[in-house]
């Protein structure tokens, strides 16, 4: 069921979203080659808890799957060919030339915020740098369509059209989602689709829009060793950006926008 949030609920989500944004801002200033992904995770958890919030992802398990293993960390840190759900580890060292997707969620006042950014570490090829830049832009293309009266797949189509215009692959089996008092709510928000299809967007819907875009020909992310982490089928790099937004009548309100200058 898709829920329409009241302005009181949106204000609570605005606070959670700001915590997520400030967490990612902090990590953006600190991330560097030589760090382990576990170091990033510990920094994020400490900051989130200092804001009287709790990490949304820590111990998360999908509902309806009693055999699911709860997620063991605050962040998802996914490097290069890892699309999503990379588990932080003291053994995973970030290297020069990596691209690192950091996905973060925070829960405060009973409501979640959720956002992701892909960071470039040192020098990368022009091809990889463009992938990161245009994945970020594909997110903004989707957000510009998140207006009351449009249809859900107008968002999806805008993301897909921008990504495919550069020859990139859209990861089709990983999607965005509704968000609110639950981390994952209805509706699913695909990153591909036909315009003017899907449910009609209404003011007060809250969505986490998150393009996952890859070089190469991968259309699916595949599980590695049966665990959480999902990688591209062909081992080519993937980038990931995400914002929590509120559907409005004029333009969507972004709840997880950066505070960095």
Q: Report the uncertain regions.
A: none
Query: How many beta-strand runs?
Result: 15
What would you call the quaternary organization? single chain
Name of the CATH architecture = Alpha-Beta Complex
Number of domains: 1
- Helicity level, as a percent range? 25-40%
Look up the CATH topology: Creatine Amidinohydrolase
Main beta-sheet strand count, sense and barrel state: 5 strands, antiparallel
Binding site for a divalent metal cation 1: 103, 114, 242
Keywords: Aminopeptidase, Hydrolase, Metal-binding, Protease
Enzyme class: hydrolase
Domain Peptidase M24: 11-248
Brief descriptors of the model:
protease; 5-stranded antiparallel β-sheet; 4-stranded antiparallel β-sheet; globular; Creatine Amidinohydrolase; single chain; Pept_M24A_MAP1; 261 residues; alpha+beta
Task: Describe this structure as you would to a colleague.
The structure is a single chain. With 261 residues, the chain is of the alpha+beta class. The protein has a single domain (7-254), classed as Creatine Amidinohydrolase. The protein has helices at 7-30, 37-50, 126-144, 152-164, and strands spanning 54-55, 75-79, 82-84, 99-108, 111-120, 169-170, 176-178, 185-189, 206-209, 212-214, 221-223, 230-232, 238-240, 243-246, 253-254. The strands form four sheets. Strands 8-7-9-14-15 form a five-stranded antiparallel sheet. It starts with 6 loop residues before the first helix and ends in a 7-residue tail after the last strand.
